[in-house]
C-alpha cells in the first residue's frame, strides 16, 4: 500500500504542486524503504527470545515459557506435540505443568522421546493441602505436602513423563491454610496444623540427592512462607527455593504492590 501511494503521487507531476510533490515523492521511496528496514530489524530483535538465570540455580530459562495446563482437555496429543515442537524451535525450553493434569504429563512425555532431554527444562508441581484431590494419591484421605506425598507425587510424575529427573519442582500451594483462589482475606477460623517447613525441605533434599529433582520452588505462596522456607534452609543446611510462581498481572497486582 505504501508503494501504491508513492506511485499515485509521482504519476501526477502536472498538479499545481507538481514540482514540490515530484521532488518530495522522489525521496519518499528511499525514506520509507529505510523505515521499513528499520522496523524489520527492530521486530526481529524483539522477537529473539531473551533468557535469564533462574534465581540461585544454574538454570537459564526464557523470559516467557510455555504453559501446558490445558493439554489433554482442550487439544489432542498430536496438537500438543505440534505446539511443543513449535515452541521448542522458537526457544521456549520450559514446559511447566502440574500433577493435577495427568494427561499433560503423558503428552509431554511422549513428545520428549524425540527431543534431547538436556535441551528441555521441565518444571512441574506437587499439590498442596487438599481434601478434594485425593485421587492423586493411593489410599489417601487428604493430600498433604509431607515426605510421603511429595515422594509419591514425584515418582508418578516421572513415570508419566518417561524421564528420570525434573528440573524444577514447585509446591503448587502451601500445606498450611492461606487465602487462595478468589479468597483475599485471611480467615483465622480456617487455621489448621501444617507440615513443618523443615520436613518439606528434607523431603526435597532426599529427591535432590537421588538425582530425581534438580531445584525446588514455591507457588501461590506468601511473603511469610517464603521467609520461613529461606530461614529453614539457611539454619538447617537444606535446599533453598529458587523460584516463586504467583498470580501477577495487570489485573492482579495489589498483593505485591500494596
Automatic annotation (TrEMBL):
Region Disordered: start-end pairs: 1-22
InterPro entries the record matches: AKR (IPR020471), AKR_Detox_Biosynth (IPR050523), NAD(P)_OxRdtase_dom_sf (IPR036812), NADP_OxRdtase_dom (IPR023210)
The NADP-dependent oxidoreductase domain, residue ranges: 64-251
Coiled coil: none
Keywords: Oxidoreductase
A molecular function GO annotation: oxidoreductase activity
Gene3D superfamilies given in the database record: NADP-dependent oxidoreductase domain
Pfam families, alphabetized: Aldo_ket_red
Protein name: Oxidoreductase, aldo/keto reductase family protein, expressed
UniProt source species: Oryza sativa subsp. japonica (Rice)
